Amino acid sequence: MTLKVRVIAPDRTVWDSSADEVILPSTTGQLGILSGHAPLLTALDTGVMRVRPGKNWVAIALMGGFAEVEENEVTILVNGAEKGETIDKEAARTAYAEAEARFQKADSGSAQEKIQAKQALKRARARFQAAGGMI
What gap in Å lies between CA 78 and CA 45, rounded to an integer? Predict the structure, then answer.
């Protein structure tokens, strides 16, 4: 038995297909979903979702949102999402390095600046990891 998985961003549907397994970046850690999973509603953190439609895994960068699991259907509503295969790895690496430098500078700034820098770093890390970069 397989899962029906949908990843929906405000501007488009990023994934709408069956899968054998899903790993989600929940706010409390990584969450694995297999067929027959108990009903669940969880908040998602900015991070990488991994979905396995067959033998190979597909990485999708998620920019926070919510996931609902019910009767072998996984519905993921997110603020933004990108498949790893569509992300330019070198551009993502550069963006990650810039976000990391900004985050280091933010230590001496205001609380709001620190929060914005941390969020930018999390987004850049998720994109880089989804593109296949190791951090």
Answer: 10
